[in-house]
Specification:
The protein contains 25 helices and 11 strands. By secondary structure, the chain is α/β, with parallel strands linked by helices. Keywords: Antiport, Cell membrane, Ion transport, Membrane, Transmembrane, Transmembrane helix, Transport.
């Protein structure tokens, strides 16, 4: 039994992570690949059933994983993200959720054929569009910040309230249908929900206070935050089932707010929790889909269930968004996109199983179809929205569809010349610097600039980074360049973060350069900050090398006194030259260099 559980856990984790990798390679929504992988492992090939293998640990593992994912999402929220659309977000998470509840209830009763009691309960649950599905889709789609912020906030805020609404509906049904229960039974529900909110807030403030006072050493901060998170969730669940998600969401919101004042709750904690969240999202989808039975899969394709899903997709969701956003800041195109995108995920799947069990115990035979109904809604919405979000967003001009751009940190003669050349290639560019004087030559050339400190936290909300895939640190300060690279590597990716060699590196010798950093140090040994700027100021220009070269190019084959900068690919993208990369030209490629302007 131990070996079965061990193998199951390892297989689930490995398949989940490699599903995410495969999705990245083929540019598919990761949730679709994970769902397919789980179905293949479980009901299709019958290799194993995680629910049977893990036994009593199955539900607690899913619950704890959902708690961490919700915490990660809520702690990353910042009010500055919804500047200009706060009214829309408020309307969607209140009136929009209510309209979706009523619409879902009517659809479940009249289309799926469920009793009005079960429909009232499940309608509350189906308002969720959680972070486990929304956030991966937003990462792939590269929406404009305003639209992405609305979808992100809706998913994270509504996610814990879906189960609570379903639980509230269940409590009302019990009071109305059971003579021995009275209205004071509902008082326990509301009291427990209030206690969960207070608990999340108190623990969040307590953790922030202790960290600000230096109670914990640096290496223990993240484990201690995770421990308090799990404690918060468990205590709330003990008080009343399904309030744990509300408690950890409030805890995350509290810590997310206080980390603006407590600087030691920084990027390391956020990145660790984000990585754990990605791992858990992969694991849970494999767990849930692999645990389905073939009978459940077959039941998904019955007309009542398909009809219910179609009504939820094309009537309930669009109508709830349009009604709730009347008179708000959103444009019609934004309403149209948001009204279409509402994928359901882990919370809907896991919580519907809980309600199916208790409703069957209460004698509601129709609850047997809840699992098939929920998975049909989850899988169809994930596929439909996952594959359509990017194309629809591009058609509505709500996505960045330009070629991958370049963010250049540091305004100087060389960086401005490089940005000017890239802009003429029709690549989006942005130069960031804290000095208005240094930026003025770029402004004169009509190059987009950001006047501010790129490392400051507020810069994330003042600069739209979605058009930019690559970041270049081009200042004369070696320490600042390294800090920029370290800070932005998680956002841009290790292979899209580059640093210019400074004078200090040249003086100290290349052996002093860390091995991991050499691969991302730009150009060549002599191409230091001062030398590049000197050349630009003495008549050198950036231009294509007029030589017909192909294959691997050795330095000896190039003319003297030139510095190779990047390869201009035939699809008009660029491949930067670094200390460690060999220059290789394919058909149609051009080598762009810094060389003396011919008189």
């Amino acid at each position: 039994m131990e070996n079965i559980a061990l193998v199951s856990i390892v297989v689930i984790i490995v398949v989940g992570i490699f599903s995410q990798w495969l999705a990245w390679r083929i540019q598919w929504p990761s949730i679709v690949i994970m769902s397919i992988a789980g179905l293949l492992l479980g009901p299709v090939l019958g290799l194993f059933n995680p629910q049977e293998a893990l036994g009593s640990l199955y539900s607690p593992l899913i619950s704890l994983a959902v708690a961490i994912i919700l915490f990660e999402g809520s702690s990353s929220l910042d009010v500055r993200e919804i500047s200009g659309v706060s009214k829309s977000v408020f309307r969607i998470v209140t009136f929009g959720a209510f309209f979706a509840w009523i619409g879902g209830t009517l659809a479940a009763h009249f289309i799926a054929g469920l009793s009005l009691e079960i429909s009232f309960i499940i309608g509350g649950l189906f308002i969720v569009t959680g972070p486990t599905v929304i956030l991966p889709l937003l990462r792939n789609a590269k929406l404009k910040p305003r639209t992405a912020a609305v979808l992100k906030w809706e998913g994270i805020i509504v996610d814990p309230f879906g189960p609570l609404l379903a639980l509230f509906a269940y409590e009302i049904i019990k009071v109305l249908t059971t003579d021995s229960l009275h209205a004071n039974y509902l008082f326990h529900f509301f009291l427990s929900a209030i206690i969960a909110v207070i608990l999340g807030y108190v623990i969040g403030m307590l953790v922030s206070l202790m960290i600000s006072k230096g109670v914990f050493p640096e290496y223990l901060k993240t484990p201690i935050i995770i421990s308090f998170l799990l404690l918060c969730f468990t205590v709330a669940e003990v008080i009343m089932h399904e309030t744990g998600m509300l408690a950890v969401t409030v805890m995350g919101l509290t810590i997310g707010r206080t980390k603006h004042y407590v600087s030691s709750i920084g990027h390391d904690v956020s990145h660790f929790v984000e990585n754990i969240s990605v791992l858990l999202t992969s694991t849970i989808f494999i767990l849930l889909t692999a645990s389905l039975t073939r009978e459940t899969i077959a039941e998904m394709f019955t007309w009542p269930i398909i009809g219910f899903v179609l009504v939820m997709l094309f009537i309930v969701r669009p109508l709830s968004i349009w009604l709730s956003t009347i008179g708000t800041e959103l444009a019609n195109s934004e309403k149209l996109l948001i009204g279409w995108i509402a994928p359901r995920g882990i919370v809907a799947l896991s919580v519907s199983g809980y309600f199916a069990a208790i409703l069957l115990n209460d004698g509601h035979e129709g609850a047997a179809m809840l699992t098939a109904l929920t998975f049909a809604l989850v899988f169809i919405t994930v596929c439909a929205h996952g594959f359509s979000l990017r194309p629809i967003a591009k058609a509505l001009k709500l996505a960045n569809d330009t070629a991958p751009g370049v963010l250049l940190v540091g305004a100087n003669s060389f960086s401005i010349a490089l940005a000017d050349y890239l802009q003429k290639m029709n690549l989006p560019v942005l130069i960031s610097d804290s000095s208005a004087t240094q930026l003025q030559p770029a402004v004169n050339k009509k190059i987009p600039v950001y006047h501010g400190q790129i490392l400051a936290e507020h810069s994330e909300y003042e600069v739209d980074l979605t058009p930019y895939e690559t970041i270049l640190s081009l200042t004369g300060d070696a320490a600042f360049n390294v800090l920029v690279s370290q800070s932005y590597a998680p956002k841009f990716g290790h292979n899209h973060t580059f640093t210019l060699i400074s004078r200090s590196y040249k003086q100290e010798g290349s052996n002093k350069i860390p091995f991991a950093g050499k691969g991302h140090l730009l150009f060549q040994e002599g191409a230091v900050f001062t030398e590049l700027n000197k050349k630009i100021n003495t008549g050198y220009t950036i231009q294509e090398l007029p030589l017909d070269l192909k294959g691997k190019i050795e330095k000896e084959q190039l003319p003297e006194d030139i510095i190779p900068l990047f390869i201009k690919k035939k699809n008009d993208t660029i491949q930067l030259i670094t200390l460690r990369t060999k220059i290789t030209l394919d058909d149609g490629d051009q080598l762009v260099v810094l060389q003396k302007e011919k008189s």
